[in-house]
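Protein in question quoted in full.
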Amino acid sequence: MTSLHLRPVQFVDTPIGHPDGSVARLAGGMQWFAAYEVIEGRDRRTVAVANVAALGARAAHLHAAITAPRPALRLGERTLRFDQPLVAGILNITPDSFSDGGKHVGDPAAAAAAGIDMAAAGATMIDVGGESTRPGAPAIWEGDEIARLVPVVTRLARAGAIVSVDTRKAGVMEATLAAGAHLVNDVAALLWDDRALEVVATSGCPVVLMHSPDPKDGGHGRIGYRDVVTDVFDWLEARIAAVVAGGVDRARILVDPGIGFGKTLADNLALLNGLALFHGLGCPIMLGASRKRLIGALSNEAPVGERLAGSLALAIKGADAGVQILRVHDVAETVQALKVWRGLRDQSLSGG
């Protein structure tokens, strides 16, 4: 049986002037929309928000998830709210990451200082990674990963930063959470390490579940998607259910469609154009497209260090789609772009 999916479309500047029930608010955020693209297999049609109830129970469930405000996360003394887009700054403590590998290896104080600078520039959280997940990168021993991460996480947490740790390994999760990290960001969606789900469930920490087609084998295998947007949605929907069954509070789950992981350029572009559909999962969305290969592919093979403009374009695309967390390398520039975006939204919402 073909499953039904809903993608919010026909966004409007403001609900002012629209009849009651004719527009809906997207995930408690700053966007309003008037219709859905209804997707059932190859069939696509547009249905007004006011008529969604006629589509049945599945549509009613998705509509409720799409329009419900995302609960805030209490993280120690900090609270993370999702009513407007937030920035997560990427801090790599690796010798071989595709973008800035080697920059902070072996100097925890300098690495932590770089993270604090990101927070000062407007990053809501610092996403710290100790193992590269670029295509072909070798897995490293968890003891080495812990040694890279714990001194940096400890310094950042003591400085008052919200810290997420980008890792697939249960032992690294345990060590960094004990050092003060607040979230786990797992590109393998808790499938690479058999103990990872237990660690997250026991700790009660929030977790980002990212899609890849082969999480146990590195995440970069290529498969043939029937429809990449709905296939990724269905995979994440099933993974959320499994993680909740494993003891994790659904309100503490975030999702990431996994741009660049096991996807072609066409797949990535389809996911970026279809981002609003993922609000049907009922979880905050993290988008990690900063400096990625697709930007170079669309701009005469621009090298990694020359992908700022493309990264900003994708960040604004995410904000327009209601994405709650933008994971980026260039924090100050992204924060400025979002401030301008927010100013435009404020002016529109006021009816001015």
In short: Residues 4-67 form one domain. The chain is about 35% helix and 20% strand.
